[in-house]
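Incident log, structure service

09:12 report received: a user says their structure output differs between two submissions of the same chain.
09:20 pulled the input from the user's history:
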Amino acid sequence: MWWKTNPSFFTEEQERLAINYPSLDCLIENNTVYMRGKLQIANIAAFDIEIKLPDDYPNSLPEVKELGGKIPISGERHINYDGTCCLTVPVKMHQALGKDYSITDFIEKFVMPFFANQVYYEIHGVWANGDYSHGDLGILECYKDILKLSNLQQITELMKIALQIFPKTTKTCPCRSGKKLRDCHLPELINLKATIPTNLLKKNYKTFMSYIR
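09:34 re-ran on a clean worker, output below:
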C-alpha cells in the first residue's frame, strides 16, 4: 500500500487536501485511501464526491464518483456503468499531471473542470470546451491528436515502436511519409514513452489491435 510504504507522502497529501479542499475528508477503509465530501463549483452547485486512490498511487490514477445522484449514469454524461466519472482520456491526464503529481493537482486539473462542465451541460446542453467521445473511440481520438494521424493502422504501428526498449530510428516511419523515424514521428514517440505508463500504453495498443484483426 502506497500510504504505508511512503508515509511522509501520505501526510503531505493529507495536509494539501486540508488546506485546499477542507470540505473533503481523508479516510482509510480496508487499506484503501478515500477522499469524500462536498466539492463546491463556484457559487453555482455542490456535488457529493468520492475519490478512491489506487494501491499504486500515484502511478495509477484515482477513481472519482459522484455520490448524490445529480448526474445520470450514461456515456453521454461521461459516467461509467459502475458510477465512476470519465474525467477525460487517461493518456491526457498522465501527460498533464506528470509522474510526481499531488492529489490537489489531480482535483484542480481534472475533477473541478469535470464537474464545472457538468453544470455547464445542465444549463446549455453542450460541453463548454468540447469533449472526446466516450470509451475506446475517445481514446483513439486522443492518440490521433497526439500523433497527428488519423489512420488506425499507422497509429498502432507507432505505438508498437514506442513499446520497444531500443527502437531503431533509422527505419522508415510507419506514417508513410517516406522519412526516417528520427526525422518524422520520433518526438511524438519520445513524448509517449516519457509521459504514459507502459502498462497503459500496452493496454491501449492491444485494444486498437483488436479492431484491426
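09:41 both user submissions now match this output. Likely a transient worker issue. Closing.
09:42 reviewer note: The domain at 2-124 is CATH 3.10.110.10 (Ubiquitin Conjugating Enzyme). The mean pLDDT is 93.
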